[in-house]
Amino acid sequence: MSLETFQQLNWSIMTPEFIILGVIAVLVLCDLFMPKTLDRKILGWVGIAAVFAAMAATAAMVGGPVQSILHDTFRIDSFSLAFKLLLLCGGVLVLFLAVSYEPKDGVERYQAEFYYLFLAALLGAMVMTSSGDLITLYIGLELLSITSYILAGIRKFHLQSNESAMKYVINGGISTAITLFGMSYVYGLTGTTNLLEMANKLVTLANSNHVYLLTLAFLMLVVGLAFKLAAAPFHMWAPDVYQGAPTPVTAFLSVVSKIAGFVILIRILLTVFGFAATKGQGSMPILYDMQNYLAVIAAATMIIGNVVALRQTDIKRMFAYSSIAHAGYLLVALTSLTTNMFDSIWFYLLAYLLMNLGAFAIIQVITEKAGGTAIADFAGLYRRAPVLAVAMGILLISLAGFPGTAGFIGKLNIFLGAFYAEPAHYVLASIMIATTVVSYFYYFGVMTQMFFRPPADDSKLNIPFGILVVLIVAVVGSILLGIMPNIAFDFMQNNLDIIGDFFK
Amino acid sequence: MSSVPASAFLALALILFCIGLYGALTKRNTVIVLISIELMLNAVNINLVTFSKYGVSPSINGQVFALFAMAVAAAEAAVGLAILMALYRNKKTVHIDEMNEMKH
Amino acid sequence: MTFSGEFFAFMALALVAIIGGVLLLNLNKVVHMVVALIFTFVSIAGIYILLSAEFVAAVQVLIYSGAITIIMLFGIMLTKPYDESEATTGKWRKILVFLGVLGFAFAVYLGIYHLDIQQVPTTLHEDNTLQIGKALYSKYIIPFEFVSVLLLVALIGAIILAKREDKEGDKE
Amino acid sequence: MENAWLIPLFPLLSFLLLLLIGKRLREASAYVGILLTLASLVFSILVLFERFSEPTYMAKVNWLTIGEVHLTAGFEVNQLNALMLFIVSLVSFLVHTYSKGYMQGDERFHVFYAYLGLFTFAMLGLVISPNILQTYIFWELVGVGSFLLIGFYFYKEEAKAAAKKAFIMTRIGDVGLFIGMILLFWQTQSFEYSEIFKAVEAGSVSNTMITLTAILIFIGAIGKSGQFPLHTWLPDAMEGPTPVSALIHAATMVAAGVYLVAALFPLFLASKTALLTVAVIGGFTAIFAASIGLVQTDIKRVLAYSTVSQLGYMMLALGCGGYVAGVFHLMTHAFFKALLFLAAGSVIHAVHTQNIEEMGGLWKKLKLTAPLFLIGTLAISGVPGLSGFFSKDEILVAAWEGGHPVLFLLALIAAFMTAFYMFRLFFMVFTGDARSEQRDVNESPSVMTLPMVLLGILAVVAGYINTPWFGSFLGDWLVDGNPILGAAHIEGPAWIMIAATVVSLAGILFAYFIYGKRSIAPDWLSGKGDMLHTVVSNKYYIDEFYQMTVVAIVTGFSYFLRLIDTFLVEGIVKGVVGFVQGLGRTGAKMQSGQVQTYGAVAFLGLAVLAVIYALTGGYLR
Amino acid sequence: MNLQSILSILVFSPLLGIIVLAMLPKTQEKAIKAVGFLATLPPLILSFAVYAHFLAGKSLSDFSVSVPWIQFHGINAQEPIFSVSYELAVSGFQLVLVVLTSVVSTLAAIGAVTFIKKEWKGYFMLFLLLVTGMLGVFTAENLILFFIFFEVTLIPTFFLIGKWGYFEKEKAAYSFLIYNGLGSAVLLIVIMILFAKTGTTNIELLKEIVGDPSGPLSADFKLGLFIALLVAFGVKLPIFPLHSWMLRVHVQAPPSVVMIHSGILLKIGAYGLIRFGMGIFPNQFEKLATLIAILGLINLLYGAFLAFIQTDFKMVLAYSSISHMGIVLIGLAAMNEAGIQGAIFQVVSHGLISALLFFLVGVLYERTETSLIDNLGGLAKGMPLAAGFLLAGALGSLGLPGMSGFVSEFMAFLGLFKVQPWIAAVGTIGIIMTAAYLLRAVLGMTYGRAHREFDGVLDLRGVELVPVVVLMLLIVLIGVYPSVLSSPLQATLETIMLGLGG
Lengths: 504, 104, 172, 621, 502
Prior knowledge:
Chain B is an all-alpha fold. In chain B, 74% of the residues lie in helices and 0% in strands. Chain E is an all-alpha fold. Chain E has a domain at 291-502. Chain E has a two-stranded antiparallel ribbon. Chain E is globular. Chain B binds chain D through residues 21, 24-26, 33, 96-97, 99-104, and chain D through 588-589, 591-596, 599-600, 603.
């Protein structure tokens, strides 16, 4: 490729990535040359600014045409923009948490690394959103994963953190291998790594043998990527890792990483398997053929997540199970395969992002203060810090999916899709609703602690600025989207045409 | 053409993948577990390279993919080992079944 | 299927690779396991050559047989493994995993065994490295660059995690 | 007559006033009650006299709309209603007056008057109702009034039990009325008496339905009027203050059952079976209760069983087609039984006991009460010349002419028994020597005796408005314009009257010999260990029977349901919860902290999915 | 003021109180109580204003408001059919319940001043939220909005029970939450299926679509949906065997909450059955009428028999609620004007009576620290007013004419006797049993000998008299002049009958 063609490429569409990349480089250098005594927190604020800038750059592209460079290895379409915005939102909130993170034997020494590793992970996730190529997707995925491994273990003098990172890396490695194994078959049966080309080739697929192998690859991909979603059967790492990892990292894993997982899953599943025919052109695509398998996975995820969460006494573990459950809900939307699936997944992820990050902000405050992560540490929070308790209450209610909150509208949207689909997924949706009711138990268990129990100590809690920002955004956002969801719906409707990305 | 059918290569990859998987899921020593994972990735690479030559419309892409996979695998191995080091300092064990500080 | 040299080469390499793998599972000493695996890695490199991927084969030798094996050995040395104690858990898990592996292999093998892909002549062996280079630097430039970020991050991460330092180290 | 609706409202006003300000008025509450009931009485008398000359008046307003159906409320003044208005307001007025003396000094004096007001309101409302629904409404309210007054001495366990029993027993009957009323509504599309009669006459209601509804309604009457088998509450109701017994449990409320049957008489006439049922129940109750009355030792209980028995008489009359006889006896009974109760109250007031075995020789001490009591006793015994004689005679004639010789015989025996136990009572209380120490026995104040005097007069003369000798004025008036109700006067053979006289005199003589002269030892009537005596004095063990059957079954069933509630309902819930929690426990247990297990689970998941796919959907398809 | 905004103000005005409360410091007890009480007044005044508007002969549809709210885009091409509007309206039936709600709420707020001993601020904030939820439930004009308000009532109730209740309050709060959660889950399934299949949740539109035999729903499917609906509201009502949560709540929750709970929240079940069960699925209702009648019968007798052997007066009342809700079912199962009107009357009547009784039990408990019948006795001596009202309330509850209970019971049975005379006849056993258990309990507490001395027990006094007297007056008013209630209902009844006839 000559320099000329190189320059002709429309690199501007990568602006958000470049911003993040540049800031990573700047932070690395700053960290090197800044005096050891200087507080690294400033770097965190720089990181936050960078994410905001990237967000602005992304938002500027909203509504624009689909653009891609270099054989779709980088691609800007509505899908990528929508989810990239989500990721950036999640990223910035996580960074706010990170700058307020000051536990005992924490990450003082590696504060700067802490920030730019977050940015790198975010970058990986962003790459995943805007790629139409298997290799780029894979690299993005791994960039995210490997950075996450490091982040999980960054409290290196903390045994739980080490163990968490170890478990994460081992499970991650296995999942990567399985995913890649699946990818290799997909590549082999199409001869290309470009997703759109794959779709073009597979749309006429009739060889039953190929279909068989491709379907196996489908299963491998789904199970492998389930790791990122923390969905069954690849969910078991989540509680241990969430518990041991530093709280902002847990927040990151439960939100940004999960969003990224959905991004890649949807991208591959819909583009490749949504077109790969089973019996020649015009026959049912593999994806639809395998709907029941997805449904089983979704159901298992919801049941496991919600039921096992009942037994938890550790708040972070409980939230791990809760996040498993939420992955299950999202899989319901994916399984139903209706045209509003993107809207509902996107909206639900947005709602989930707000409520989960908000909750983690409070968890971070409490666990830092208490030095442990037991749910019992929340006892009497209402006495100690009524505002925090009420905020947590609202977020929990949103997580439980009560009306008036974003969580409810999100669930409503998913139900709508599940019932609208032909054939309608009555059983799946019913499982979802039933397990939601089960989830009341543990969400309200936290409430019980906060509101009904007397506090162990009456010391007041101080809320750092970063936490405050996250809380305000989360609570206001949760309620606003619960009461006026059309803010988000209309944004999607008017500016983005995700269905067009996949089916036009 | 080739006297060795593509399926032979694929079968080899499958066998190695399974060996790696079995190792990763049963070996006690964490280093071996990490190595087993590398073996799995190797198996994948065999697949990729095989398909690069014998796949439906062969192309160089498979080989490139394999190279990427190797790079990533190396990074992953390094990070995994680093984490093991950190853990070892705190826990003085490399036995994976003793890493059960957090459970239930 | 003709019994060509290629066939024998394949058989030999495959055998070594699998034996290496099996040894990995069955040897007792950790160092031995790693060494057994070196055989596998090297024979895989041979397989690559059979598949007209000379560059990949070279990289395979360098990265796997070289780099990765070495750092793993370092890892073993640094951590002083005691492998004499028997695992306390996992009898059932082994059996289940074994059955699972069998089932999975069976399912996938069904697919592979009957796989018939029309073979087309390729030019992969001609200027293999050049072809790869071209692809890497034109089509795959973006992932390539991101790999560099990835490696950087992994580097930094590995350092900060593995660096030996005292807990109270720099507070003085 | 247009203003007859005001009659019930005076006592209601009394009730409300006393409820609100009674506490401040204290003893003056009595005047509120007395004056307002007097107003009712005056209006009632006016209405009664107006009704002699004018036709039935009826007015109604819309009360409740159900779709197309408009239920009304209103009032009707027909002969029966006007008569009942008069009786009720008169007795109520007298009891109000009497109570001023009787209840003197009670700290809840005003409450008593309030309750009396409520009861009087309800009773008056009951008797002017133009439709059965309204009747039912007041029917229940009357029950509440009775309930409250029985339980007036709420701190007494017996009063509590009696009040509860009264309410529940009558409610059992009320449900019969309730069902009957509703069934009747769906048959005739109306609750109005006139519409119902029209429909029945027109034959638009099947015979079975008429019988069924009539009997159901009669069940209501059974409950209210203390007929067998729902009679047990009435004797227990004597736990209430005595004026209450006089008003409610002698003169008015218990007679409501009779009134109801009378008011719905055309319906009953349309069904032979229903009429027969009424007659048989009435006849049986008459003798049954009388037999219990023979051995009771509590003065009020004797009177109570006598009431039950007399009500049975009335029912018998109605059941035999003797409309006039029934209503006539209802009236006379109201007077003499109220008199008896008030006199008994006066006695109790004087000696502070109700046990007749502890009384005696009071004739000299209670100069006014004793003769009045004697008048009452003579009247109820059917001694010629007094009111009871005439009405009882009418009934006997009705029974004989109605073609029920067995019932006639029963009635005759009952009449004998009545005479006997009433005079047993009289002799034991007023003659002989004092059986226990009685100090300070004084005649009651005039506020108590005056009502008694008035009632005494009525007990003597009331019979003369409907006699075979001087013309059946009452009967003529009652059936005027309603030939369906039967003859104004049933001519019977003369021997019936003689027989009745003989029987009652025999009873009196018999009692005189045993209790007055003591020439016959009463042993066989009070003998210990005599089985018959034991059975009778325990009221045939009816209460015990109910306790052992109905109450036990209900309680047992309740406990059985409790078992279901605790084990089945809660058990299922616990099971589900347990299952979910068990699932959670298993899930948490699997989370063993072993990272390889996690990977194994994930991979096994994949393997299972793959194998399932391979075996079902995939390759072997 | 714009008539259309009145309902919104009516529903959301208590939220204003929440905001004011939030700004008050915790220590300002008096102000908090005052605000808590005052915030219930706007709905009260407005609801009476609406009632007056109706009495003036003007149409209730003047108040209907419909504003586009949520559009679920993207689900199908012909946009935007999947939309939910913010729709509030009152029909006569709804109006009656709104008035009931606002009255009971105000009285419960007064009750709270007596019964709640701690943390008034939190209490009143949650209480006002609950009031908003309840008012919203009765005015919502589409299913989603209804569901939202329905769930909004869950959360405050959970906290009100769990924080301010008695000994086993948390268990009670949880069983409330889970049962009702499951109930609302089933409801949500029904709502979403209807929404997904028909594209609307507007009740009036749904009536047409579901009623149309050639509509998008098959007959079996509709039957299934109706059964689900029955279960959903059956939890709330509650119908046997879904009742056990309600017992716990009634025993453990603070009296002022039980007033609301028993008085109004349970009525949501009945409201839902009438409005949606009968309104949207009339034919299905007809098909299952016998089943519903039997369920009603079971409820009626089951509650009555179990109430007969309870030792705790609160339990008596709780089972009595079950029994009385049986009458609602019986009335509905009659499927005629009398029955349905009876059911609605029962809803209102039981709302008032149970509020009264639970208030009185609360007072008794305050004074004597027990509600066990055997521990009490002879209370009429020490607290004649309380005992008197208790007795009056019990009489009202057992269906004494002249009070509201009778009218409803009478109409319900009147209706059922026309269609199911045998079931109705068996049901009348319930009438007897009601008298038996209520008198047993009430007389056991107030009459007879005192089982222990209650020294210095105070009678009802001061502000406590307000709820008691007001409720009693309303009970008597409806009993004596039922037209106050029946006249707004006629239009609703006609609509329902039209649905049933078609």
